[in-house]
Design brief:
alpha/beta; 5-stranded antiparallel sheet; 7-stranded mixed sheet
Length: about 425
């Protein structure tokens, strides 16, 4: 298995999906295992003292620089992969909104007959976990007594950091008996969970591995993307007519489940597409389409092992500066504190983030078909207007960074 490799593979060929998974999650050289540092701004921002959102952006940039200066004073690193999350930027208000959503829905549907069981996928620094537990303890003490928070974390380094967060202060130490940190990939999960539970997957889907598919413009036959890695570590992308069972199943499920039109290479006039394909120097295949096969497998796990779950997920429905293709990812790294985008996912494993947009209309239909559950999709802004105390993040002139940031994100929840 690729996951067991201690060095980047050579003289092999593999599916695009497997290459992306190895690049991001290999425990010995993967991006999330070895390279990523999650930005922490220190003390929460005092939004009420800020003139406007421009001042927030200025203060955020200043704290970013100070944070990285401190890291460089200990160990200089030109290739440090530093990124942020809404949990860290808007601490504790973002986590409190999630806590309010969980607690209120739990009270309406399960209290007092069942415990409030929460699973968080990829908990980062552990900030969201602590913000949720702090808020439930302070505002919903009866619910807190029945709360169990379980983190499923693939990164050993982050799992260790999350454990240390619990012992950092007297306040957080009080949560210890409510928390379990499970250092495991969700895709290795084999424990049946019969209880009612919530599964949090916030900014997780964007880094799930995808397959690349191109189509014959005349026959409309799909071909699946592969990569060959030679003895020098150079990459050569190629496509084959053999579609593996996972990608084949996704195409079949999507065809059956999706009731709404969606963008893909075969959408539009077939005649016009064939005319373009006959032009001199035209490609013999369509541009790639990146399909979320790993996400489909995640829905399988929810259906099989968490049959009574309720899912809350937030992710980007669109991204700037993507590579060429449908549902194509952004592939980028940081060098000397600057973001460097590239035009292909086939780059040195572990040094580049590969993040995909999520077509919520498509995945909502697939999730419903695979789990039999009902869902609601809303914008990130409308979800926070419903569950956050938006006054906490409002600046003097009435602007609100909590609402205006992440305009390109959506939220899907099981109802």
């Amino acid at each position: 298995m690729l996951r067991s490799r201690k060095e980047r593979p050579k003289r092999v060929k593999m599916l695009t999906r497997d290459f992306i998974e190895d690049s991001l999650y290999n425990p010995n050289y993967g991006y999330f295992s070895k390279q990523v540092v999650i930005f922490s701004p220190g003390e929460p921002f005092d939004f009420h003292s800020m003139r406007d959102e421009l001042e927030f952006n200025h203060l955020l940039g200043k704290r970013y620089t100070e944070f990285e200066d401190r890291l460089d004073a200990i160990a200089p690193n030109d290739t440090r992969q530093l990124w942020h999350t809404p949990t860290e930027l808007f601490r504790p208000y973002y986590g409190e909104a999630i806590a309010r959503y969980l607690a209120e829905n739990y009270i309406l549907s399960h209290h007092p007959y069942h415990d409030l069981i929460i699973y968080e996928l990829g908990a980062g620094n552990g900030t969201l976990m602590l913000n949720i537990l702090d808020h439930i303890r302070d505002i919903y003490p009866d619910v807190y007594q029945r709360t169990k928070f379980k983190v499923i974390e693939i990164s050993s380094a982050l799992a260790t950091m999350q454990t240390s967060q619990l012992s950092r202060s007297a306040s957080s130490r009080g949560h210890t008996e409510h928390v379990e940190i499970i250092n495991r990939s969700i895709f290795d999960w084999q424990t049946y969970v019969p209880e009612q539970c919530w599964v949090l997957a916030l900014e997780v889907f964007d880094n799930f591995a995808h397959d690349s598919i191109r189509y014959d413009p005349f026959t409309e036959e799909p071909l699946q993307g592969n990569v060959l890695i030679d003895n020098n570590g150079d990459f050569y992308e190629f496509y084959t007519h053999e579609i593996d069972p996972v990608a084949s199943r996704f195409l079949r499920v999507r065809s059956i489940a999706c009731s709404r039109p969606f963008d893909h290479p075969l959408k539009g006039s077939r005649i016009l597409r064939q005319l373009k394909a006959r032009l001199p120097f035209a490609a013999n295949l369509t541009v790639p389409e990146y399909i979320p096969t790993r996400l489909m497998q995640f829905f399988d796990i929810l259906h099989e092992y968490f049959p009574h779950h309720r899912l809350l997920t937030s992710d980007f429905h669109s991204l700037p500066d993507t590579i060429k293709g449908y549902n194509a990812p952004v592939v980028q790294t940081r060098y000397q504190r600057r973001v460097v985008p590239v035009s292909t996912p086939f780059v040195q494993q572990g040094y580049f983030d590969i993040l995909f947009p999520t077509n919520f209309e498509v995945i909502e239909d697939i999730y419903r078909a695979m789990t039999g559950k009902l869902t609601k999709v809303s914008t990130h802004e409308s979800f926070l207007k419903r569950w956050a105390y938006v006054e906490d993040t409002q600046t003097k002139n009435g602007e609100n960074p909590l609402l205006s940031w992440y305009k390109n994100a959506s939220v899907m929840s099981t109802v």
